[in-house]
Write a structure and sequence with these properties.
Alpha-Beta Plaits; homodimer; Molybdenum Cofactor Biosythetic Enzyme, Chain A; hydrolase activity (chains A, B); alpha/beta; 17 strands; Maf protein; 6-stranded mixed beta sheet; MoaB/Mog_dom (chains A, B); CinA-like_C (chains A, B); 5-stranded mixed beta sheet; 41% helix; CinA-like protein (chains A, B); hydrolase (chains A, B)
Amino acid sequence: MKVSVIVIGDEILLGQVTDTNSGDIARHMAPYGWEVGDVQAVGDEADEIRLAIDRAFELSDVVLTTGGLGPTKDDITKGVMRDYFGGELREDPAVLDNVKDVVSRRGFRINNLTAAQAIVPTSCRVIQNRVGTAPIMWFEKGGKVLVAMPGVPFETREMFTSEVFPQLRGKFKTDVDIEHAVLMVTDYTESALAEKIAPWEEALPEYLHLAYLPKPGLIRLRIDGAHRDRDFIASEVKRAAGELAAMLGDAVIATEDLTPAQILLQRCRELGLTLATAESCTGGNIAHELTLIPGSSDVFAGSVVSYSNDVKMGLLGVERETLEANGAVSLPVVREMAEGALRAVGAHVAVATSGIAGPGGGSEEKPVGTVCMAAAVTAPDGMTVCEAETHHFPGNRQRVIEASTTRVLIKAIKLLRAM
Amino acid sequence: MKVSVIVIGDEILLGQVTDTNSGDIARHMAPYGWEVGDVQAVGDEADEIRLAIDRAFELSDVVLTTGGLGPTKDDITKGVMRDYFGGELREDPAVLDNVKDVVSRRGFRINNLTAAQAIVPTSCRVIQNRVGTAPIMWFEKGGKVLVAMPGVPFETREMFTSEVFPQLRGKFKTDVDIEHAVLMVTDYTESALAEKIAPWEEALPEYLHLAYLPKPGLIRLRIDGAHRDRDFIASEVKRAAGELAAMLGDAVIATEDLTPAQILLQRCRELGLTLATAESCTGGNIAHELTLIPGSSDVFAGSVVSYSNDVKMGLLGVERETLEANGAVSLPVVREMAEGALRAVGAHVAVATSGIAGPGGGSEEKPVGTVCMAAAVTAPDGMTVCEAETHHFPGNRQRVIEASTTRVLIKAIKLLRAM
């Protein structure tokens, strides 16, 4: 089942905010065999919104819009929908009660603008928005459905998964079964990987499809299968994933769609180990990636972000001589940082980074993108193993930080393999 | 000048990656009066791409595509463009040289798939991609232009700003001047702010436009003006921004489009102060936001991410009695964390957080979303001032972390006002 998504809002076209709603919707629907067929982003302009709806209805039976439902003057979606689907605007008492309830839970009092959220077209059925003030509106026309949802990502995520999508599945029944498998692959560039598996990929039957998603230091391979026979497609996808995994060996670091942070937390949890980070150039990003994951606190103990050399020495115990002899961006320093984090935080596993994220700070010897990283683990016998290496990452500051984060997490995952 | 953007790639529609290219393009063009008029995201399907190009050319004279230019089988954009614009596919020796150069700089050797990047339609003019292997292709048809760019964000950002956009501006001259002003406003909800300034907003002349961009704890107000007379519109935008700022008083924390992290770094730099963070529930995100900003290292000294109580005591010097008497999520604990960070990191300003980001860990007394936060500053006379407060944030784990980060940075900005 294909769905068209329309993202409404000048802020999207201006690049002030990034649309994450369409991706959230796609990821949630995928396991049920529902796909986003196309996404259109348009401004807060009535003509543009109407054109986008026309086109979406040409392509799909289900159209989802997000955004443009706020209380301020620049949000015009509701009026456009009234014009498009007909009917009058009326105040809905149930929506007004819900708006009052949501506003008071946030500790505010309702004002005229917020109260206006309760005015909706008579041509729609309202789905109450439990987590925000903008009502969700379900319109039908000639057997097709348009659902207008708010733009605030957490509201859309919450209401789409709990109400909108279950109701859509109730209305439109589909009967193709979808299965997929994922391999997370390291050590290969995208083209080297593609070349290695080309003969295998070309021999895939038409009901199986392979997709590459390269990220710095990591490639996600996804096998999708679609077939009317559920058992058949499940076993075919499993067989294909097994063949790929056998071909790629140690380069496969997970057979689930997990981030390196999730994989490392899972391995540490299985082994009963706690985790720390000592971060210079990554500036807390590794800790942030780890702590974004719910339940990380049973494994992750803490971090020292040692941007200054004083903090490297004071909190991590890096020796002044090591810094002076090698510079902060060096293998001896990241080794001492990783081992220092084990002691300072009191953890079993630690990763450390020190590098030049740019744009300033580079030299001929150590250009921007040079990052030294280490992973250390204290084995059950009390011995500490520490491995360090230097990388050169292309791209801007953010990309260097992200690539360093991914690489050092993968480094720790591989180090733990030997445990 | 309006531009249509087409984002190509199954990975976008599947929600595996989020499109940031269209936003990057929009933000870069805005100061020159160029706008993204619409964005379409389509899969790696020839028919879908052709339809999207047809529609884009209906709306705009300039169409930019990103993605679908990778070396693997699922990337088909190049073939679609050849069919659309005509001509043959040929190997371009200059592109091949560039591909070899880029690949060898990354420390890899060229293989057949990478070499195939050098095959381009004869109907396009190639713009060499200095930072990646996929050539950028410039097509023209009936006075309109389509430029096909790669999907990798840093490649597109780099090549769009340095080559593609300057060449587009050279071809299409525009003559309306655009000015804008931004106010960053705290202390108001979106609707309370809208209500306060409604009479003023309604009286704005038609060449001025006000847009709201709410974020947790902060609203960006943007005034855009467009007029043929550059001096006139510049003074009008300035006048409007001045009126707004006078109306909102202390709630305005910046008159530039800066994040709280940027504002705080700027204030610290002006005052000659260094900065530290002590993070429990934000897990390093505050440090990450600060260190994403180039040049932050002259102000930001370091952080302690104290997820476990042992780290709170060991590295930050929080007293065991304080933890036992009040719990980790409490005002006394975040005060001790902030003051401990001043000492441990050796900084003048510190912010601290401790809270329940969820989804687990909540209780009746301290539900998920409860976050205690503190900001501390050591004044020139050696006295330390520390302020702490408790917030309740709605939403999921990520939203609680982001909202806490924004709030505590704003708290520090306000504390420094008194300096």
